[in-house]
Amino acid sequence: MSGPLYRQIADDLRRRIESDELAEGARVPTEDQLMESYRASRNTVRSALKELTAHGLVHALHGRGTFVSGRVTPIVTTLTSDPETGRGGGEGFVYAAEVAASGRSSSTPGPRVEIMKARPAVAQLLQIPEDTEVITRHQRRYVDGRPWSLQTSYYPRNLADRAPRLLSTDDIAEGTVAYLAERGIQQAGYQDSIGWRTPDEEETRYFDLLADGHAHVVEIDRVAFDQDKNRVRLTITIYRADRNRFLINVGDVPTEAHPIRGG
């Protein structure tokens, strides 16, 4: 093994967990036992346990010790949509249905809504002048009570003239795509850009990650187009890389096909 000692300890414990030498629910050796086994300081052992905790492999119970966590099966999100059934797309009801299909439960508190000037990256993707006002709708999404994704949608401010509920802090129960369609703004298509990167400070806190750049998040930037090919929405969704997988269907794919499995 190489690298800092705390990382070596964490990697060895991870190997023991993944091989079921330390089974789900088993108590991890105490700090004193780990210090003796690895000839390490208490701070080094605590750093190793903190890394395992950040990756969801162990959890601490106050006064009882540290235990091996149940394995989190990644959720598969279908990014493409079926033009005949409307399934897929990874948004709104469809996202909730995919979570439910995995035997889990999703929850999304009401959005935080703001009007702000578009930063350069947002202006470029929406192809609007910088500092143009945009409506932003921020949401935090949870699965089984765990922070699962962060999502922010940006809409050109002038859309509110036709779709005033975009400015409401209430949740749009039918979904913004359906609401905009009711207002004559049909989503004719969308384009996704997918990237992996280290999390920023807000994402590190929300996902309870280590601030050492070791963990990654997935960022999906979706630009939606209306029936006149206007860019009407930019949605940026951030996921923990270790808890999510993404499915993209191309061509005539059988509905029962589901080649991606978590683990």
Characterize the structure shown.
- The protein is of the alpha+beta class.
- It folds into 2 domains: 5-68, Winged helix-like DNA-binding domain superfamily/Winged helix DNA-binding domain (Arc Repressor Mutant, subunit A, Orthogonal Bundle); 75-247, Chorismate lyase (3-Layer(aba) Sandwich).
- Helix content is 25%, strand content 29%.
- The protein is built from 7 helices and 11 strands.
- The chain has helices at 5-18, 31-38, 42-54, 92-101, 120-126, 176-182, 201-207; strands spanning 58-61, 65-68, 75-78, 106-107, 112-117, 133-143, 146-156, 187-197, 217-226, 231-240, 244-247.
- Strands 4, 5, 6, 7, 8, 9 and 10 form a 7-stranded antiparallel β-sheet that branches. A two-stranded antiparallel ribbon has the order 1-2.
- A hairpin with a 2-residue loop joins β6 (133-143) and β7 (146-156).
- α1 (5-18) packs across α3.
- The longest helix has 14 residues, at 5-18.
- It is elongated, with a radius of gyration of 22 Å.
- The model has no long low-confidence stretch (mean pLDDT 89).
Q: How are the SSEs placed, and which strands pair?
A:
Layout: H1 5-18, H2 31-38, H3 42-54, E1 58-61, E2 65-68, E3 75-78, H4 92-101, E4 106-107, E5 112-117, H5 120-126, E6 133-143, E7 146-156, H6 176-182, E8 187-197, H7 201-207, E9 217-226, E10 231-240, E11 244-247
Parallel strand pairs: 3-11
Antiparallel strand pairs: 1-2, 4-6, 5-6, 6-7, 7-10, 8-9, 9-10
